[in-house]
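Input (structure):
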């Protein structure tokens, strides 16, 4: 473990590498505790950095066996080797071959970074800085080389040997060993290196590219799980075809491989031609996976495949440019899912997630720009800001330029920078070159942290037949950025007439609003629309065209109108959310003042109208019936937050909806139930199940005996995991005998399946009741729980800390103490997972004073622990730093 105090790395300090690596030849002899790695690097001086006199390579916990230059072993006095670096003081002032042999212990690598073992399978994870745990190397993204990898292993222990690229040789060796040689002809950075060896079953298929080449597709899993790979394979083939059609991108190797492992710090990794996946995002069957699991598999399979061009063929110059591959690829996978499923429902789901996680991050001590300017531990910047907000920035480019110009910009990016390590500036320049957009102003989205706050007030003048829209924007202070500049904000809008049709958008002076998008660039602006013959209803930020917090002077009656009539599905949903948010905020305030909350009649009318409208797809109706989350309400309150008050207000409103709309909810539940029909994971079928189960949840919200009985019956009779988990989730919210009976039954049914057991752990950790902490503590001693498995840790402790706000934020501080205790225990073996867990404290400063004091005490307990990893130290120090002015 790295326990030294990390020095900050700054974007402004970037300089090109002294040495470039043209080729890497690796010879890896696998052994459980003493694997040998021989690396032969062809280095050449980098003309861009001058004439280097020495070579300095990165390492992390390495044991050096030997080092040679051009075949001549170096004596010890010619180099300095530590576990974390190798420096050779005198080297030829020309290209030369550097041979390095290291010895590593895969079984002892509990960090799951570098070369490690998952069960009996050898596996690598090199992003961000894992390759330096395998051999000494200039481990940075802008050093790109062609790799040839020879793997040798005991044939009975590891009959399957895989690496990047195409297989060019294999054979048997004396002593029961064998080897395989893989060659990747495309230069890549070291973080994209991958190696796998083990006993694995293979599911095969083929794909013919748009130019007529046949590509072998292979998914490797634990033997016996082959029948759960069909949806992943289908998703891969659809993603490959979509990328050809939507972006003109064709796959480039002869083979594409996916390996599913059970011990993995991330969801998946896009290593060139050899993607390594957390098995939860590969394995699925109707009996084991929910609709959400199927959707996640589809999206993540696509995401990692799309990286082949946005991340692999074009990578990032340095880790500050991380959003160049991640934000861009998230945008691409969101577009893929939108085309495969429902674009409006996908957009709503993405915005829900953005607000619940990234907006919270933007408002707290861990806020940072989409492209940060400094970091201490790069692993901590794989965040919602880099990924999801990064995707929103790309989406704004498309909104500003239009689909045709956006595609031209992407085509130019691919042709101009193929094979390069690029920067955000180079990416944006491609769009500047195909348009007249003000790119320096747009670049503020990459450099300024925080969620812009936009206030828009509209006024119709009947006499002049004009509609005036006054708009102001501010960006709140964030750590290190107390003063902000105005942003370039694409604001899609419509003025909706009484018949539900959009009125023409013509600005004073006769200019029409292109594609219905206003462009904000100043702190305050006014837009006057002419020819408005009737009072319109303002529909603003349609499709969530910009990631902003929006406040308008729209009345409750207008919101009801938009919920029923807006042509933009996102804003139909948003109108209902705005109504519900207003009511929930009023209910929270009434609890504190002991006053009487306002009537919810307007919201009830809107929900009733949506339920009665047969035009929207069921998945959309399910989203409309789902109230804003507790994090959404907390964000609107802003400070002195009492999570219990928010939970109680939300529960009361759910109960009221279930009672008021009970007959219609019950009728819809029955209509959406596909009795006897075989399970299908397609969007339409999943949407019907989603609406059915949202209705069940609302009907049972008040613990009505009939609804509880219906949930228990659905649990027992369910023919698929979606309906069974939905019923179990409903029962888990109520202290009724059926709850424990179902939880116990679920364990008996699925104790032998690790992925389903994760659901069992997570469900119990999410119960919003005081006994949950004791339950979770007890489950950490369960024979099926292990701190060594990231999936299990995320399921139990992660769910408690990040998805159970009332119990993590208990008034007595016990929730904070428990999580801090587990962070310290986990930090000893897996700092990356521990750091993600401690990030649950990101909103501690906005809590009411008593909880705030408890949370700070827990953070300081972690901060003062001995031998704390760089990963956790970085998060805790930023969380405890004084807030922005």
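Output (sequence):
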């Amino acid at each position: 473990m790295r326990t030294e105090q990390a020095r900050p790395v700054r974007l402004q300090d970037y300089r090109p590498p002294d040495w470039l690596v043209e080729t890497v030849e690796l010879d890896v002899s696998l052994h459980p505790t003493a694997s040998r790695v021989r690396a032969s690097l062809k280095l050449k001086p980098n003309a861009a950095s001058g004439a280097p006199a020495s070579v300095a390579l990165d390492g992390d916990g390495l044991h050096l066996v030997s080092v040679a230059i051009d075949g001549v072993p170096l004596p010890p006095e010619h180099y300095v080797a530590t576990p974390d670096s190798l420096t050779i003081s005198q080297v030829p002032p020309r290209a030369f071959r550097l041979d390095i042999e290291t010895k590593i212990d895969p079984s002892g690598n509990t960090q799951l970074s570098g070369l490690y073992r998952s069960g009996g399978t050898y596996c690598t994870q090199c992003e961000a800085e894992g390759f330096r745990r395998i051999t000494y190397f200039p481990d940075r993204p802008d050093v790109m080389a062609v790799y040839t990898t020879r793997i040798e292993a005991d044939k009975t222990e590891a009959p399957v040997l895989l690496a990047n690229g195409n297989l060019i040789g294999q054979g048997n060796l004396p002593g029961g060993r064998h080897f395989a040689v893989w060659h990747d002809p495309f230069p890549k950075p070291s973080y994209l290196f991958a190696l796998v060896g083990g006993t694995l079953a293979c599911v095969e298929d083929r794909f013919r590219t748009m130019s007529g080449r046949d590509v072998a597709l292979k998914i490797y899993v634990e033997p016996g799980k082959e029948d759960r790979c069909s949806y992943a394979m289908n998703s891969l083939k659809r993603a490959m075809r979509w990328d050809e059609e939507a972006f003109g991108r064709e796959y480039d190797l002869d083979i594409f491989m996916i390996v599913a492992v059970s011990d993995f710090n991330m969801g998946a990794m896009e290593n060139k031609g050899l993607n390594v996946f957390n098995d939860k995002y590969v394995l699925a069957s109707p009996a084991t996976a929910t609709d959400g699991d199927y959707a996640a598999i589809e999206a993540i399979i696509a995401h990692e495949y799309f990286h082949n061009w946005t991340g692999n063929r074009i990578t990032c110059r340095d880790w500050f440019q991380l959003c160049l591959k991640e934000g861009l690829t998230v945008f691409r996978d969101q577009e893929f899912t939108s085309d495969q499923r429902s674009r409006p429902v996908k957009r709503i789901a993405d915005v829900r997630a953005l607000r619940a996680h990234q907006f919270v991050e933007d408002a707290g001590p861990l806020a940072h720009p989409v492209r940060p300017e400094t970091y201490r531990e790069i692993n901590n910047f794989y965040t919602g800001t880099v990924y999801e907000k990064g995707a929103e920035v790309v989406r704004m480019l498309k909104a500003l330029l239009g689909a045709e110009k956006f595609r031209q910009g992407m085509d130019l990016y691919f042709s101009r920078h193929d094979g390069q390590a690029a920067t955000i500036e180079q990416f944006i320049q491609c769009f500047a070159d195909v348009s007249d957009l003000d790119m320096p102003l747009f670049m503020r989205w990459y450099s300024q942290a925080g969620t812009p706050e936009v206030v828009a007030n509209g006024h119709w003048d009947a006499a002049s037949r004009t509609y005036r829209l006054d708009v102001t924007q501010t960006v709140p202070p964030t750590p290190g950025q107390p003063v902000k500049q105005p942003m370039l904000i694409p604001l899609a809008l419509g003025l909706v007439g009484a018949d539900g049709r959009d009125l023409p958008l013509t600005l004073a002076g006769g200019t029409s609003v292109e594609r219905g998008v206003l462009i904000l660039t100043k702190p305050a602006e006014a837009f006057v629309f002419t020819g408005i013959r009737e009072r319109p209803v303002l529909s603003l930020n349609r499709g969530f065209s910009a990631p902003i917090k929006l406040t308008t002077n729209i009345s409750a009656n207008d919101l009801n109108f938009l919920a029923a009539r807006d042509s933009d599905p996102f804003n139909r949903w948003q109108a209902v959310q705005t109504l519900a948010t207003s009511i929930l905020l009023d209910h929270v305030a009434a609890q504190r003042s002991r006053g009487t909350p306002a009537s919810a009649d307007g919201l009830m009318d809107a929900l009733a109208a949506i339920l009665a409208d047969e035009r929207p797809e069921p998945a959309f109706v399910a989203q409309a019936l789902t109230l804003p989350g507790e994090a959404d309400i907390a964000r609107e309150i802003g400070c002195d937050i009492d999570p219990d008050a928010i939970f109680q207000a939300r529960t009361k409103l759910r109960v009221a909806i279930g009672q008021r709309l009970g007959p219609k909810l019950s009728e819809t539940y029955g209509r959406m139930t596909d009795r006897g029909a075989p399970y299908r994971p397609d969007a339409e079928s999943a949407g019907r199940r989603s609406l059915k189960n949202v209705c069940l949840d609302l009907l049972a919200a008040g613990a009505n005996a009939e609804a509880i009985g219906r949930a228990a019956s659905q649990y027992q009779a369910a023919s698929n995991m979606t309906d069974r988990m939905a019923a179990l989730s409903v029962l888990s919210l109520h202290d009724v005998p059926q709850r424990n009976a179902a939880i116990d039954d679920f364990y008996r049914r699925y104790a032998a399946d690790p992925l389903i057991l994760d659901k069992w752990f997570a469900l119990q950790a999410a119960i919003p009741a005081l006994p949950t902490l004791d339950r979770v503590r007890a489950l950490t001693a369960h024979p099926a729980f292990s701190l060594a498995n990231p999936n299990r840790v995320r399921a139990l402790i992660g769910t408690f800390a990040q998805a159970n706000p009332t119990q993590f934020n208990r008034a007595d501080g016990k929730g904070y103490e428990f999580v801090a205790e587990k962070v310290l225990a986990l930090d000893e073996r897996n700092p990356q997972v521990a750091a993600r867990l401690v990030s649950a404290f990101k909103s501690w400063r906005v809590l009411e004073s008593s909880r705030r004091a408890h949370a700070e005490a827990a953070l300081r307990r972690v901060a003062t622990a001995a031998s704390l990893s760089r990963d956790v130290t970085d998060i805790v120090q930023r969380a405890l730093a004084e807030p922005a002015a």
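Notes: The CA atoms of residues 618 and 854 lie 43 Å apart. The chain has a mean pLDDT of 97.
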